[in-house]
Amino acid sequence: MLNIVLFGPPGAGKGTQSKKLRSDYGLVHISTGELFRKHIIEGTSIGIQVQEYIAEGMLVPDEITLLMIEEQILAYYKDCKGFLFDGFPRTVAQAQALDRKLEEYNSSLSLVLSLDVPREELHRRIKKRGLEENRIDDQDESSVLTRFDLYNSETLPVKTYYENQGKFIKISGIDHIDLVLEKIKEIVDRFIIENSPR
Ligand code: AMP
Fold it and tell me: Which residue range(s) make up the domain with 93?
């Protein structure tokens, strides 16, 4: 299986790149943010539990997030070539749980690709997305600031976790969408060649 994490702060372009990558490599795209938003729209019990966290820019508790991830992996692992995780893991506990879960399926994480974008550009993109996609958490300045604070305190340690595994690769995410995609694909293609059975 080819299992990829797209890593980076809010507004780095993880969602945009995931949508392009998933079809190219036949991967199942798991965006925790998108899944939560769907639960909220459908008014499920998960949706009711998470809506306040999301509106305020807080992290949803790991128990809820991990349960949802487990369900997704269980539902799709048989028929897919791998998973593309977007916006997950966001804590070291989530990263550890993901490693354990993939191991249960005799699989593991292949690559963690981190999109690097300067802070001012992230703010510009989030503002634009807030209007275009009508995302309340993107429109509320205090929610945006909370998300950046939590990215620094809770999510950045995940980078060290994957660096220690030799899986973390930084990519400049400031260029045009197609150029960023090209760079990502170069890295993924190289990984596939280097890890295919001879
Ligand atoms: P995103 O669409 O990735 O920007 O996520 C939107 C919101 O969903 C975040 O600000 C969090 O409130 C919540 N969320 C998404 N993914 C996670 C995660 N892996 N762990 C905890 N909360 C998450």
Answer: 4-191
Residue 40: which CATH number?
3.40.50.300
The model scores a pTM over 0.90: yes
Q: Which of 37, 125, 129, 183 is catalytic?
A: 129
Q: Is 10 in the pocket of ligand 1 (CB under 6 A)?
A: yes
Query: What is the domain count for the chain?
Result: 1
Pick the catalytic residue from 22, 37, 125, 147.
147
Averaged pLDDT, 126-133? 94
- β pairing state of 111-116 and 168-172: parallel
Is 196 within the bounds of a domain? no
Task: Return the closest-CA partner of residue 195 out of 93, 109, 98.
Answer: 109
What pLDDT shows up at residue 70?
A: 96
- Work out the average pLDDT over 39-55: 97
Cα 129 to ligand 1 centre (Å): 15
Residue 90 a catalytic site member: yes
